[in-house]
Amino acid sequence: MTTTKSTKIISAHGDALSKEELSLVRETVKRGGLVVFPTETVYGLGADGTNDSAAHAIYEAKGRPSNNPLIIHIANPADADRYCVTSELYDRLAAAFMPGPLTVILPKKDIIPQSVTGGLATVAVRCPSHPIANAIIRACETPIAAPSANLSGKPSPTCAKYCIEDMNGRADIIIDGGDCLFGIESTIVKPEDDGSVTLLRPGAVTVEDLLTVAERVNIADGVIERPREDALPLSPGMLYKHYAPTTDFYLLDGCDEAIYTYLNTRENNCVFLMVEEDKPHISDNIKTISLGSREHPEEEAHLLFTALRRADEMGADTIYARLPDEKGLNLALLNRLIRASAHRIIKL
Ligand code: TXA
Ligand code: MG
Question: What is the pLDDT of residue 237?
Fold first, then answer.
């Protein structure tokens, strides 16, 4: 395991790196090294996306199975042609949502090694809008393969503190670029021949947004696992855990009143991921972490992963959160919460 690197931490002042810092990043990437960098979604653990052994180093540093493929990050949507086979639908998605939090799955070209795509014939492509991410890709003159910069299974890091927690000693460089704007990973879609797109992972580009470009949005299996109507009150884990805190985590599926009654009668040491509107209804002995106002799902998404890490730090024995609906950005929240809780949903 790669735990012995001496990691250099660079604090980006404003949204830029100096010329010297960019050349250090370039040298590191050229020799197959690993660089943690900020994007507008979450931090990435980047390496040369055309270098087979660099891709292996990413999997090793994250403790991630090498059949779970990586996204390649490009500086300009038009560069996708060099690495994969694009289409008219890709061009329309790119015009509408790139640079930004959208990843598109396309047939790969030979220049992208099999290790990057986990053996698949397709590759995931994304053009981040974060100026530091963009500057790094340009400086390296290669696509940057990057998963989220967390240890496999942990919540994606949305600030440098958690990158350092997970990747110190594992990456060569960690660039501290402050808080990520969206705080939730990119939307992933696969364009289909009939003009529709299949949604593989919901994110800040919503189904409603995609419908302005694609004729239809098919939701892939596994994006939303709703409890069956005949499910027992407590659904045990059905999916593999992801984005997960280490503390026991349950989602509460019910109206506000039922959720308040449930929480206020708990006698365990628990923490509730609440919205501001909940505050007056929750008794003082329940610890809370606020995800902002119910009126602002983008704020909830922005705060979610940090809240999951903070909830662990609070030393409670159980974490609770409300099961969101599926509208707009809530679909992304729902998807992450279901996975973080390993589908443990308490029907109230
Ligand atoms: O916002 C993001 O997308 C962040 C930042 C760093 O760009 N990256 C990210 O990467 O979330 P990662 O590796 O944590 O998640 C990428 C997801 C994985 O679930 C992977 O299975 C899927 O994308 N994926 C990658 N290539 C794929 C492919 N060819 N076909 C289907 N799914 C793919
Ligand atoms: Mg990830």
Answer: 32
